[in-house]
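Quick entry between incubations.
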Amino acid sequence: MARSLLGFLAFLALLGAPARSQTSAQTPARAPAAGERGGPGLALLARKVLTVPFEGVQFVDNAVLLVKDGKIEAVGTKAETAIPAGYQIVDLGDRWLMPGMIDLHSHVAGTFDINDMVYLCNPGLRVSCSVIPENPRFKVAVAAGVTTVLFIPGSGVNMSGQGVLVKTGLDRYEDAVIRNPGSLKIAQAGNPEGWTVGVGRSFMNFDLRQVLRRGKAYAERWKAHDASSGSEAPEKNFDLEIFRALLDKKAQISTHTQIFQVVLTTLTMLRREFGFDVFIDHGEMAGYKLAALAVELGVPVISGPREVEVPTRTFINWTGSNPEAILGIAAEYQKGGVKMLGFNTDAPVVPEEELPIQATVSVHYGLDDSQVESVRGLTIIPAITAGIAQRVGSLEPGKDADILIVTGDPIDPRNTVERVFIDGRSVYDIAKEKRRW
Amino acid sequence: MVMRAPAVLCLCLAAACSAAGRKNSLAPLPAGADGVAILCGKVLTVDDGDQIFSPGMILVRDGKLAYVGERKPIPEGYRQLDLGNAWATPGMVELHSHIQTGGWGDINDMVIPVNPELRASAGLRPANPLIQRACAGGVTTLFGIPGSGTSNSGFGVIYKAKTSGTYQDVVVRDPGGMKIAQSYNPERQAGDLGLTRAGLWYILEDLNHKAIGAIREKRKDPALANLERVHERDLPVLIHCAGSDGFPAAARMWKLEYDTRCVLSHGCFDAHATAPWIVATGAPVNAGPRTMDYVVTHNGAITGTAEKYLKAGAKDLSLNTDSPVVPQEELFLQGTVSARFGADAYTMLRACTIHPARVFGIADRVGSLEPGKDADIVIRSGDPLDPRARVEMVLIDGAVQYDASHGQVF
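Done. Structure below.
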């Protein structure tokens, strides 16, 4: 029986083989379009280009943006920028250009199995295995202009594993992934308490500290070995490999942290005590009262999903915060001196496509937007925070051509993203398909 | 984008007298009168000519608007209130709101399906916290109504969103109008008639015939007195109706059959599919709280409902929040969302101000900044439908009700 089944399968395989090769022969690879890798150059003419570099002038009016081989080649005024021969020229009239947006707190890059909750600390787990590059939620996200996300595991336990930085609008994982590991996810408190029969703040901090110490010691042993030739290599421990990336500043810790005491622990334990690159990735509630300490320790703040502190006397009261007015979280961090200030959605908590609205809400509740802090918080700030600014986050020569064509100011929700490029590829175009968002 | 066309208009219309019939007055303030001259960067009058004055000036005299127009020398006696570059717009008008009691409760008396004898004004708590937030969001006049748990839940009250004051200080009209729930909520679960649309239709027909009979026979029935005023076109009726079934059903009954001053409220789900027919009946639409449809029609695209009604030629389209379903202070945001999904942004400002005032017969007092009207003025840092702009000050009947410089609420 088994043999006949094997034979049948082999027969099927024989039948299938020529059919497959025939199909691939019938669909030749299409010629790369203007702007794509290997294609001709692309020149986009727009009323305003929000270039948002980390420093310097943030926009160019009446501008030309040149794209070649999936990268940004040049950006400047129409008067000063020569368009090379052979470039496809697209005049966008009154429209604006901006970099693709970046969300550093997202759970919608694939399947939702993001909480492995047997142990409290799981530094070895990787959420990259759950990525589905063109999933339905990404289809809407890219239509809203979100082109890069940090896909991270959940906050069910203190250390739920490693996130991965991926682009949204691409169909192959190899094209989509920017960096793996993207981060080590730590949930300082405010969810992992529910683990098994319940754990308290003091045990969680004790347990977390043990793992961090083991991990850092492991990474330091490897560093010493790498520095001295001939020494005996330490034993590989895959559970702790992520700490080598953290020690070398090749990855950061993204923390689910929000209320005063918890943010204080994030800043003092993860940053001051262990010296890792860490960012507040769930900036909400009364954590803003620690803005000055975050600035002192160089810890960026990614605010959201809750962008406001409301005057209610519900559970929020135990944070010690009970303002009389609705406060904008980002505005309060900004008043406290934080300049490395971005926005997240914690999608699907807030839908991924509403990332720009997080910035709108923040401006509504008092964020000073005079230096386009709103757009910066969606682009260059998260790019620098996650250590990927050499590739994304601004429209500067040499960076990936992740470009949005918007009908106007992207922070005004009456405007619409009309077209999205990722790596110079047109991945969404409302002129050619139904508007998704 | 808001002011391009009207900016031209304002030049030719500035001297013309206003739609309210009263003329701008630059006369000195009479002795004993209270007056303030508001100077601001831009005045959006939202009047018939859509005049915009930039920079502008508003004179408020004893709670009413005396002058709305370009900067002129301030007449003698007026205090000056210089608001810099801020924009002045009319206070917004909400026709579908349940916050008069201060929360969810006390709006559904559900023992029997028709209650023309009930009045929401009995539950009005002026200046309650939800009303205070509405004011801070730029909403100044509200039609506070009972819920949609029964087919006819009673009569609503029109009041102002003042942040202090008594019932007498805030009420504009009581009863302000009737509330009907055509379907999608009033379905009876009590074992009596009305589990289906057919039952609900019969219940309302039966009620209307009683009222028409009472009018014909000049019979005094206190329970029907207000309903008679609806049939005599003295009071408007706001109808909770949605979907491509209930929405046209409401127009058939209340517009085509009884020719009442009906306003079709909600118009959610796939009701927009019937927009051309609805508009042809002449029944005005009050869209919201759901201002887009992407679930019911299953066509894979997001449809802005306001845009559909506008495209079908709807005049006097207004927007609602159904607060607290959508928070009352977010009425402007209904306009923003509608603009995002295709509706003209400036028309959406009209949909939150003059249109609802007009369809409810209170445009002689509110809905636009014109001489003679109530001085209900919202001062914003910028475009009223841009959520980045904040409400800086709200005046109702000429008195400052909210001032963000004393602590921003919303």
